[in-house]
């Protein structure tokens, strides 16, 4: 691994890679701070730009957006009591009271420092565990990959917002979308309707931009308040907050470990990990620490956890090619467009790219600490932007970026079409992430499924004959059963909670 | 009885979309793919088997979802008026118009018009507050993409391309 890091250093230590990583952190902090955008949207918007760049610079730019975006949400959570992203929802529990107590600068500084340190912890996990996982996965054959792709898809569907059923429906739809175009095996055309533009299927960027960005902007227009300007005072954190954060070092390590663990689990993610870390921190805290009333430890726990999640989520993404969440799915998509196939082969054949990606990830967290603390006043100023300016700019970025992929107006119509699909799915309370994961994992699943069936002499039994594949089959079944059981328990609990009210209403 | 745009209606619309998609898959397998000879044979030759399998799974899931909707398990009380949907619908229409005009008018004419239109739609009214950001954003992004990323934006019938 050391060799990979050394060879990656040449690719990472260039003005372009370093500059774009810093720029990515700035952009990430801005999109993270602006409610309604977030790291995923930032990555989606900059994906068309990134894929025109050299691989490590491109990945540095996108990963830095993920890193900055995971932290940016805390700024609006602390200052406005509106989490810029769901990742920062737990941060407002203590961050906002801290700001109310006149410690807004401390709270933002601690959030940024904890994010950077949590992110670095996630980076260490990434560097140590992904080669191990990749080496284990190098023994995988098509049956294992088939089941792994299914596990990724099911896990995302299970934990996505909305019901398990809806997540699976949308995931299956994503798999179908991935079949459009020329079939790799038979070279026949599927669902192309005689259109030359559809021979290669839909471009993943057009799908992602449409589903996430276009639908989000439309929803923002529908939600109103387009000319509201939030009242935010000036905030100027200092590097002293870094020392304040280090005072909570046990909390920091524990929360970062929780974040990295949840990140590595496909489907889990930053929101779950930050709440879990907060719960763990408050459970062991002394009453005088005042969790929920402006405790520094609360901010340290949530922010270190959600940024460590980014590193954790890159472990299965890079080592197996199975994304941990929607953001890492888009990052995988970027790698694929750049001509690299995440998985064990990449670790063996392009170690310099893997090493470069590791290093830009680490550097983006260091950059986050400096850029975040020094430029917070700028991000606070950005919070005052009206949506009536933001929406047209984002729409234009979507259009120009998608056009730039292949200089194709067809891609723009695909983007708009998927935008409409995204709106319909949002209105029906369907999660969007499984659609994108399905579209990205689709070819991996189909190719390996067909290869498995070619190898097999007994059809689908091949998935039960091999121990790892069979374990993954069992894991998939357990995932679904577990989600069904949890749903059932939740409904029972809801019913129970409603019962006294019903009785009271009847007796009244 | 007037139909309200409720969550329930949206759920039925999505179910209808999924059913349409499944029917389309089977129609294509029976016609286009069968004609190409990729709707039968082993895993290597049969390009239709996988989408068919996914469509069947999707069909089962959609059936369960439709069943839940009929049984009223997911009844939603949220309602909204059609009037509230006018602005988002106008945004989509405006954006579609922009995409349609992009090739003909070119980036440098169509984009400021689209940006100004969206700003007006979002409630901005002062001409200066619309024109200056519109021109700044339009030319700024054109500079990034054309001068820096070397991407030729549509010039339209007037062949408007800036030599940066």
From TrEMBL, chain A:
Residue stretches making up the DUF112 domain: 18-437
Keyword set includes Ribonucleoprotein: no
InterPro entries assigned to the protein according to its UniProt record, in alphabetical order: DUF112_TM
Transmembrane segments: 12-34, 110-136, 148-181, 201-219, 257-281, 318-341, 353-383, 389-415, 427-445, 468-488
Membrane as UniProt keyword: yes
Keywords per UniProt: Membrane, Transmembrane, Transmembrane helix
Listed name of the protein: Tripartite tricarboxylate transporter permease
Species, as recorded: Marinobacterium rhizophilum
From TrEMBL, chain B:
Sorted UniProt keywords: Membrane, Transmembrane, Transmembrane helix
InterPro entries according to UniProt: DUF1468 (IPR009936)
Start and end residues of each DUF1468 domain: 18-154
Stretches assigned to coiled coil: none
The organism's place on the tree of life at top rank: Bacteria
Transmembrane segments: 12-30, 50-71, 91-110, 130-149
Name of the protein described by the UniProt record: Tripartite tricarboxylate transporter TctB family protein
Protein source organism: Marinobacterium rhizophilum
Record lineage: Bacteria, Pseudomonadati, Pseudomonadota, Gammaproteobacteria, Oceanospirillales
